[in-house]
Amino acid sequence: MKEKIIFDYESAKKRFRAHFEEFKRQFSDVAIESIPIDENDNLFIDIIRIFKDKPKTLIFTIGEHGVEGIFGSFIMEVFIQEILPMLNLEDTSIILVHPINPFGMKYLERTNKNNVDLNRNFLNSWDNIFKNTAYLSLRDVFEKSGSVENLVVERIKYYKDVLKILIQGKTKLVKNALLIGQYESPNGLYYGGKDYEKETLLMIKLFENAFKISKQVVHIDIHTGYGPKDTMSVVNSHLFVEDSKTFEKEINYSPVVKSENSEFYSMSGDMIDYLYTLRNEKFRDTKLYSASFEFGILGDSILNEIEALFRAIINNRLRFYGSKNDKIKQYVKKLYLEAFCPTSEESVKKMYSQFKRAILGILKKEGLISNKNL
């Protein structure tokens, strides 16, 4: 494993773009497109395409939740260096997207410049958006006003809120209030927006073009943060037809879960779900497999989830109200980053191995890689 985690957006962008020159020496048909999200801030979604108009298309995306793109960029590098050379490229186009949310990756936020969680923004329709009453009932816990003055004091106040929630038996309500997404509070957590964001529209166009050209589309999207510590979960859409245990055997990897409360969690406006609905409604003749690879960082115990929520709340407060001084700001950002990026070499090595095992199993199953290349 020679790849390294790069902790800033500009350096990761430079590394990714450098692959274009390498690919030009290897392949006869390569293109790069840098789509500006904010040119004044030097924010771009970079897309590298290797071959086009092939019957199969493999799309690899990172950084839909910007801060998750830090580790996602490392995984992208693993894919480029170690997986791409194994692919059957005679009939397959490759599309690499780095990152979907450059603002969030640069400023270590999950959301984009408008505080929109892009993985709650892929609604199939903006008519009759559901009202997240659970979120609104706990809004005073999730959204605090005023600058961050003292983290010790803030933790004490937060744990008092948590204790109150536990006593009232509202633990499940918290999970449902947050993870499904909300569309009422623009400055809140997991905000899904009021319409499609620029980044979302770009990805929708990319997916539609892939469906129009290819008879088979495989899409892998990298996420970090949720799930068992140091464990990569393959998260299939609830619209995916195969059950998780059968799929585990087929790809020789576990855990595999579906995006539903009984196995993982449900969400509104999910990109993977949107992709399946798009295929089902407009491109039924195209074979699709799309999944998220979710790398668990802090862990999924109750204490770990309580800590993860604290970091989300305090970071959101920092974003909108600032902090007493730069030292507090830097510490909050460090805490937040470490909720989405592994801090030990042992953790990185473990999830590196898991990623390789899972993606090779999936690509073999989908016919994009043969035994002779393994």
From TrEMBL:
Q: Which Gene3D superfamilies match?
A: Zn peptidases
Q: Name one Pfam family in it.
A: DUF2817
Superkingdom field: Bacteria
Protein name, as recorded: DUF2817 domain-containing protein
What is the native source organism of this protein?
Answer: Caldisericum exile
